[in-house]
Design brief:
Layout (H helix, E strand, L loop, with lengths): L1 H18 L8 E4 L5 E7 L7 H8 L2 H4 L2 E7 L4 H7 L5 E4 L1 H9 L4 E8 L5 E4 L11 H5 L3 E5 L4 H12 L9 E5 L5 H6 L5 E4 L3 H8 L9 H5 L5 E6 H6 L1 H20 L1 H11 L5 H13 L10 H13 L12 H4 L9
Parallel strand pairs: 2-3, 2-4, 7-8, 7-9
Antiparallel strand pairs: 1-2, 4-10, 5-10, 6-9
Helix pairs in contact: 1-4, 2-12, 7-15, 9-14, 13-14
């Protein structure tokens, strides 16, 4: 099953590369009324971590920059493939996803950061939590773990954590790698998995439903600064239409600042974006986000980008031995001023 999943991922990437348009106009729909430019940004999930992006849209920051921005959710690697095919302006996701595509012949570049921590948590099915102070490697050994698709950032973190705990992801645990992360709670509810690796809002919703309790392992704290979700676009767009990229990043940075500085607004926006979350669960979700420094400006730091690449290599998601990827290769910092 794992090999079939990996083959499907590889085939999807090859098809996307074959269709790649790669021009500066990729993902733009021309001008709307009033001279605004329409663009689409693809997200792999609809997540709490992307509140800065949603804020820039809802508060009119994109409009102020002459943009009309649509956010579309494309699961299973579709966000990357749509960018490669020229169907969207770019995607919000890990810079290592761009690096993986680059190794296969593409030329993607990361232009701004959004989520600056490895935004997944390890949770155990209710009643199976490890005892306080338990050895994590021994606790996880033999467990069935539900996580995201092979090739995705959450999967890379899962594999990286297992390896650092002395476990072989292929032999010492059973991995259920789902294409659509929204299926993870059902996997736990049906008793098919002992442990799950989830992000918000799934974490909070799972607590709300009694599927699991508070996280027993927190990669956000373990890994430190980590360019988990960034804005990735074709390099051709940067070279041929830098003003468009600058306008997008300027608006996004305003949204980033608003979310970081205005907890009350962040809660209002999150309630609108995730209406099924109960108020107390939503409050706890944002408590975790701020406590774990989920957002830390739009500036791309070498430390955060290199951590993303290291995790992807260690988790056997990225093999750049023949086409080396690094901060200097996949990050373009001209659009954001360092804090």
């Amino acid at each position: 099953m794992k090999n079939l999943l990996r083959a499907a991922v590889a085939a999807s990437a090859v098809l996307a590369l074959a269709a790649c348009a790669g021009g500066a106009s990729a993902g733009t729909g021309g001008s709307a009324d009033g001279g605004t430019t329409k663009i689409t940004i693809a997200e792999p999930v609809h997540g709490v971590g992307y509140l800065p992006l949603y804020a820039a849209r809802e508060l009119g920051y994109f409009e102020e920059e002459g943009l009309e921005v649509e956010v579309t959710t494309l699961t299973g690697g579709g966000h990357v493939n749509a960018t490669l095919a020229g169907e969207v302006f770019g995607f919000i996701g890990g810079p290592e996803s761009g690096a993986v595509a680059n190794v296969k012949g593409s030329d993607l570049v990361t232009v701004a950061n959004v989520v600056n921590r490895g935004n997944v948590y390890f949770v155990a099915a209710a009643g199976t939590e490890p005892e306080e102070g338990a050895d994590m490697g021994e606790y996880l050994r033999g467990k069935t773990i539900a996580g995201g698709r092979y090739g995705g950032t959450p999967n890379a973190i899962l594999r990286h954590i297992l390896i650092t705990e002395g476990l072989d992801p292929e032999a010492d645990v059973e991995l259920i790698e789902v294409e659509d992360s929204s299926a993870i709670p059902a996997t736990v509810a049906q008793g098919q998995a002992d442990v799950a690796v989830v992000a918000e809002p799934q974490l909070g919703l799972g607590i709300q439903q009694g599927l699991w309790g508070e996280p027993f392992l927190n990669p956000l704290q373990l890994l430190g600064p980590y360019a988990y979700s960034s804005i990735v676009v074709p390099r051709a767009t940067v070279e041929e239409d830098p003003d468009l990229v600058q306008a997008f990043v300027d608006a996004l940075s305003k949204g980033q600042q608003r979310i970081e500085e205005d907890r009350e607004y962040a809660e209002e926006l999150a309630a609108a974006e995730f209406p099924t979350m109960e108020p107390d669960v939503l409050a706890a979700t944002l408590d975790r986000a701020y406590a774990d420094s989920l957002w830390d400006g739009s500036w791309l730091t070498e430390e955060a980008v290199e951590m993303a690449l290291e995790v992807a290599r260690n988790g056997e998601i990225l093999d750049d031995s023949q086409v080396p990827q690094s901060f200097d290769v996949i990050a373009d910092t001209q659009f954001v001023t360092a804090d």
